[in-house]
């Protein structure tokens, strides 16, 4: 039996539940490793939640918790809530993955102080697995996102400025940023960074939605052809 707001390609509620449970297990494992981190920048007010990666992991976890509850209870408002949470979490996680591993390949010390690098398994759990699980949920299980490019940009501006406000508040208490490069950045440069980041997020959202719609169209065409053959 399919869930009330699942895509036709989603074969069953059992598949959806399995994907969400697997994702939550991965996320729980990643969270269990967070206290073991030795990066000195995670100390003080805000702790590891000064880092966008950990905030994104929290968003991913909330998305999958809502998705799991929606699967089990088969309640329409929960499916809608999961879709909106996915809108916030998936583009952020995808861009984190792209930027993180690009910098990782160029110079790891730009990400983490020397001697404080994460084990590869924990690194993957924070900077790759959430993206993979969210994309699986989006492209296999979910209906199209209810958003256009302009609305996505406004939403992503809100996300970017909220994070900026949060780390500035943390800075006012502990005296340092989670990312050392921000210390030298002027307010104008930070403003530009927020706008550019929001633009990247919005573009990612639009591209993911188009990919999702293309997959849905291909799936619908295939299912229609199969139905015609059986008649």
From TrEMBL:
Topology versus the membrane, per the UniProt entry? Multi-pass membrane protein
The transmembrane residues are 12-31, 51-72, 84-104, 124-141, 153-178, 190-208
Task: Look up and give the organism this protein is from.
Answer: Clonostachys solani
* InterPro entries linked: ADTRP_AIG1
Location(s), subcellular: Endomembrane system
Protein name (record):
Integral membrane protein
Q: What is its main location?
A: membrane
Keywords per UniProt: Membrane, Transmembrane, Transmembrane helix
One cellular component term from this protein's GO annotations in UniProt? membrane
Q: List the Pfam families hit by this protein, alphabetically.
A: Far-17a_AIG1
């Amino acid at each position: 039996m399919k869930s009330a707001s699942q895509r036709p390609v989603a074969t069953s509620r059992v598949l959806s539940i399995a994907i969400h449970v697997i994702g939550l297990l991965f996320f729980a494992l990643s969270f269990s490793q967070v206290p073991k981190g030795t990066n000195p920048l995670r100390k003080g007010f805000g702790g590891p939640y000064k880092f966008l990666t950990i905030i994104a992991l929290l968003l991913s976890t909330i998305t999958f918790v809502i998705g799991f509850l929606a699967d089990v209870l088969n309640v329409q408002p929960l499916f809608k809530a999961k879709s909106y949470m996915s809108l916030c979490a998936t583009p952020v996680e995808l861009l984190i993955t792209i930027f993180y591993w690009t910098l990782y390949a160029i110079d790891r010390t730009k990400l983490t102080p020397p001697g404080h690098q994460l084990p590869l398994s924990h690194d993957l759990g924070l900077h790759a697995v959430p993206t993979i699980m969210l994309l699986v949920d989006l492209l296999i299980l979910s209906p199209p996102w209810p958003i256009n490019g302009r609305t996505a940009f406004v939403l992503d501006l809100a996300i970017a400025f909220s994070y900026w406000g949060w780390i500035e508040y943390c800075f006012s208490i502990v005296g340092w940023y989670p990312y050392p490069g921000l210390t030298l950045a002027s307010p104008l440069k930070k403003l530009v960074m927020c706008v550019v980041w929001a633009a990247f997020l919005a573009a990612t959202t639009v591209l993911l939605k188009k990919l999702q719609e293309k997959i849905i169209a291909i799936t619908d065409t295939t299912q229609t052809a199969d139905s015609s053959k059986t008649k």
